[in-house]
Amino acid sequence: MITSTARLARRAREGGYAVAAVNILDDLSLRAVVAAATERSSPVIVQVSVKTVRSIGVELLTTMVRLAAQDAPVPVALHLDHCPHRDVISQVVAAGWSSVLFDASDRDLATAERETAEVVAEAHAAGVDVESEIENIVGVEDDIGSDEAVHAYSVATLVEVATRTGVDLLAPQLGTAHGLYTRSPVLLPERVRELTGLTDLPIVLHGGTGLTDEAFRAFIEAGVSKINISTGLKLAYMKSAQAHTAKAEQTGRWDPPSMFRDISDAVQAEVAGHLDRFGSTGHAQDAAR
Ligand code: 13P
Questions:
Q1: Is this structure's pTM higher than 0.85?
Q2: Tens digits of per-residue pLDDT, 19-30?
Q3: In this structure, which residue's CA is closest to atom 5 in ligand 1?
Q4: What CATH number has the domain spanning 5-288?
Q5: Catalytic residue among 26, 71, 81, 213
Q6: Shortest CA distance to 151 belongs to which of 176, 177, 172?
Q7: CA pair distance 8, 32, nearest whole angstrom
């Protein structure tokens, strides 16, 4: 059974930690993420980009994650990451995913609000949660997004739109960016405090890779309850593949299953570190309530 994303985020807030939302790329990374959560007895959100949805297909992804979640002794949610495309949203809503991030940050405010309300009506009718983004989080990831801040609003506007549209989680601009940081970001945990003073909606932190432990702590203390990690997992995956193939070149032993084991170990260790950092380790039972 896959579980509700909004419920995991609300439990995290009550427990003073954040639940990790980790972008998977294939079955290998999916199983490594679930293995890390199991090892740490932690809830986890498996996240998928539109690019990965297009490469694997909704049906196969849904089956893979359902089976992985069904066998796991920890709560696992399945979330569609940044999606501006209404047809893809409709497909995963029909497939019974836990939640979608409707990314309307490329639309003007009135259009973003109208379309977000439509997505909420469609998703809620199927029991699917909606994360909302109307300001853009800087950085291009899996072909989606912009390196420029295109839309920025006051916290009051963010909360008003979220309340009118009925979304379940809110992804504001918090000074972070997707991908690797090329210079130190100016982080905005105080913006989280302003938002949590106005709304009980779970607040989502994007662009987790590369932030310090202190930064994560400051954001969680301010009220962030879902933190997204993608680039860190891609790096762990590719660097371990690179090390493995370099060794194969020397030894002449070309054995894909042993490379899969190395990749899986590297991804599992990367994710387990984040679960410890976000404080969700040991919270599988209370998150499942
Ligand atoms: P990073 O790629 O910086 O970890 O960000 C992930 C993210 O926010 C996915 O939505």
A1: yes
A2: 999 999 999 999
A3: 207
A4: 3.20.20.70
A5: 81
A6: 172
A7: 20
